[in-house]
């Protein structure tokens, strides 16, 4: 009979919790750049508070699961100094309600229950070494930050050459730990709690940093444009979409930076994006911006003012 290693059991038992974390609306908005850069700074500040306790526990308990190559606190400080300034970064260090609960749980168990410490340590650091790497690339692209430089140092591990090998070593250490069945179950439950606390932190931030153009809002705007302004869309695409021969234009999407159409040219359709003059932060600005595009399109096409 083959015995499933604990690390595999743990991963299987908590993968649904992972999916909920991965599907966080806040993370999706952040990684797509739909909310301001301040949201990235706010998450970095919450991370600072969490890693402060986690790394204090790692230090005080001399946990074999921790290593200097993982230590994140100096990187988090440097990121915050870069994002909000050396004089102001400490002002961001106010825990959200969920972070306060997370910190209380860490203080309650991480200094006295080695298995509980590992549950939280695994949850954060293996996450940072895995999905965190995707998150960092997306944030870099969305906000013009550079991987491995201040602003995103939290996600880079320069002292670890091979992240996959490091994670495999970490899992082997978990598999070799002398935890009986009861302890293993307790640790699995604690990892589930860790996921829940992380999701709650993300949801707290999601209440503050709201994407002004969620799918339902875009759908309403599209319906209005396509029902009532189809001819206006054609003019906008002719003047600003690089489609001078457009005969029809159906709005197909938008975000804070531009509006998209499926444009008909000579019987074929082509996707066309028209950038806004500025990044929009509120729904009410869409009407103003699209109206401006329409009037300027008429002028650019040599038509009389409407
Ligand atoms: C956009 C968000 C996320 C993405 C794309 C993502 C993606 C991934 C991927 C692809 C893996 C597997 C890596 C491998 O097999 O080596 C992974 C593992 C992991 N992630 Fe995430 N993740 C995200 C968010 C999170 C969050 C918010 C947490 C919790 C704080 C988290 C915690 C973990 C942990 C603990 C593992 C290791 C699981 C194991 O192998 O035992 N992830 N993630």
């Amino acid at each position: 009979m083959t015995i499933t290693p604990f690390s595999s059991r743990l991963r299987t038992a908590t993968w649904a919790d992972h999916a909920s974390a991965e599907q966080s609306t806040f993370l999706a908005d952040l990684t797509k750049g739909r909310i301001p850069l301040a949201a990235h700074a706010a998450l970095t500040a919450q991370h600072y508070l969490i890693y402060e306790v986690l790394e204090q526990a790692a230090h005080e308990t001399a946990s074999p699961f921790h290593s200097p190559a993982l230590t994140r606190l100096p990187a988090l400080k440097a990121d915050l100094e870069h994002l909000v300034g050396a004089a102001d970064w400490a002002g961001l260090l106010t825990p959200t309600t969920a972070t306060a609960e997370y910190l209380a749980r860490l203080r309650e168990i991480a200094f006295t229950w080695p298995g509980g410490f590992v549950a939280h340590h695994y949850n954060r650091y293996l996450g940072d070494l895995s999905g965190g790497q995707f998150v960092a690339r997306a944030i870099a692209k969305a906000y013009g930050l550079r991987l491995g430089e201040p602003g995103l140092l939290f996600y880079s591990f320069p002292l670890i050459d091979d992240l996959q090998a490091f994670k495999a070593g970490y899992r082997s250490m978990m598999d070799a730990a002398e935890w009986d069945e009861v302890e293993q179950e307790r640790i699995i439950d604690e990892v589930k709690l860790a996921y829940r606390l992380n999701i709650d932190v993300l949801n707290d931030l999601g209440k503050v940093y709201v994407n002004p153009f969620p799918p339902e809002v875009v759908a309403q705007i599209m319906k209005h444009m396509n029902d009532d302004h189809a001819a206006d869309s054609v003019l906008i695409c002719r003047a600003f979409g690089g489609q001078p021969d457009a005969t029809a234009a159906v709005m197909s999407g938008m975000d804070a930076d531009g509006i998209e159409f499926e444009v008909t040219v000579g019987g074929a359709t082509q996707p066309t994006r028209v950038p806004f003059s500025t990044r929009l932060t509120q729904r009410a600005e869409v009407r103003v911006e699209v109206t401006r595009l329409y009037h300027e399109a008429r002028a650019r096409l040599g038509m009389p003012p409407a």
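The CA atoms of residues 179 and 240 lie 65 Å apart. The pocket of protoporphyrin IX containing FE is lined by residues 7, 11, 18, 21-22, 27, 122-124, 126-127, 130-131, 134-135, 167, 195, 198 (CB under 6 Å).
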